[in-house]
Write a structure and sequence with these properties.
- The chain is an alpha/beta fold.
- The protein has two domains: 21-88, no CATH class; 101-340, TIM Barrel, CATH 3.20.20.
- It has helices at residues 21-26, 32-38, 46-55, 62-65, 78-81, 147-158, 178-189, 203-206, 213-221, 240-251, 270-282, 306-319; strands at 110-111, 117-123, 165-170, 196-201, 225-231, 254-261, 286-291, 327-330, 339-340.
- Residues 1-18 have low confidence and may be disordered.
Length: 341
């Protein structure tokens, strides 16, 4: 069991891997013992890492690895990606599909839960496997449409003129090729009632080189209003390469927001949350949501009780201006929107 230790808030130096983003994606660490060796973790961590990996494989890109402190098993970035034996422990209320997304999938690769917007599984792949991921058990093999199968999904959007926003999700949508994403966006643009394209992604954070000229070309020329929701949980995740990637996105007319997950031992203290909001704003990103943990099986050790979450946010509000305050929410299956706590 990992115990809590103080987490310094200084920015970590980063020396990201060079080369095309595709090579960095392919070269991510996928072996738990290699991850432990590279970060000089004692061998006592290896059995738990193997246990967790067997349930949900480890995946850590080099650019993200470079921001983790070697030899520190309590590093807040490492804790997000290091498999643990606790993941095999059953916990009451923790299930494979905590948001009941299987009940809201009317077409292959499409999730429709809320009015006015639909979520498209633009890629089943991720650049990094976060241990608390609410889709760690998601049946991607059943929700990864081919181009021919996208036709039926796009027909669903064309037939419902109440839908104004398409949300690219996954996996991580930016793990798909620019050719595929440009093809999909071109077809969305042809649906007259669509106004916005929202992209939920972690790739600009974990492999900042993903924000290259090819991506900015199709993203910068779409008629759709563009919003990118990043997923950053700790200020140490934001180094100069991430800030540079965000600047490039801003220049392409993209509105940048961030959603975090409140995680025990990672960001469940006021100092860290305040530093995160400040660091996000320095990078041109507005805090959006602070989610309590979705009860996905294998992640119970990250839980922060609701009362503790409310106290943290109340203290945070004393320190920050309103525009830097994320909204504390839970996603409740069957509700028509996120539920504020």
């Amino acid at each position: 069991m990992i115990t809590r230790s103080p987490i310094p808030l200084q920015r970590q130096a980063s020396t990201p891997a060079t080369g095309a983003w595709q090579a960095q994606l392919a070269g991510a660490i996928r072996d738990p013992q290699e991850l432990c060796r590279r970060l000089a973790l004692d061998e006592r961590w290896w059995p738990g890492a193997e246990t967790g990996h067997a349930l949900f494989e480890v995946r850590v890109p080099e650019a993200y690895l470079a921001r983790i402190r070697p030899g520190d098993p309590h590093d807040p970035l490492l804790r997000q990606v290091l498999p643990l034996g606790e993941e095999a422990e059953a916990a009451p209320g923790y299930v494979a599909d905590p948001l009941e997304e299987a009940d809201h999938t009317p077409r292959r690769g499409l999730i429709h839960k809320y009015a006015g917007r639909v979520l498209l599984i633009a890629s089943p792949a991720c650049a990094i496997n976060c241990r608390y991921c609410f889709r760690r058990h998601f049946p991607y093999e059943e929700n990864a449409p081919s181009r021919a199968q996208w036709t039926d999904t796009l027909d669903y959007l064309r037939a419902d003129d109440s839908i104004h926003e398409a949300i690219f999700s996954g996996g991580d949508p930016l793990a798909a090729s620019d050719r595929q994403l440009a093809w999909l966006v071109e077809r969305l643009e042809a649906i007259p009632h669509l106004k916005r394209l929202r992209i939920h992604t972690r790739l600009p954070v974990v492999i900042p080189d993903r924000i290259d000229d090819a991506l900015l070309d199709w993203l910068g020329h779409t008629r759709l209003q563009k919003v990118m929701v990043l997923h950053i949980n700790h200020p140490n995740e934001i180094d100069e390469t991430v800030i540079d990637a965000c600047r490039r996105l801003h220049d392409a007319g993209v509105t940048l927001l961030n959603q975090s997950v409140l995680l025990a031992g990672i960001n469940d203290d006021v100092d860290t949350l305040a530093a995160l909001s400040e660091r996000l704003f320095e990078a041109g990103i507005l805090p959006y949501y602070l989610h309590v943990l979705d009860p996905v099986s294998g992640a119970a050790h990250f839980d922060v009780p609701d009362d503790a979450a409310r106290i943290l946010v109340a203290e945070l509000r004393k320190r920050l201006p309103g525009f830097l305050m994320p909204t504390l929410v839970r996603e409740v299956p069957g509700e028509t929107s996120k539920t504020p706590l």
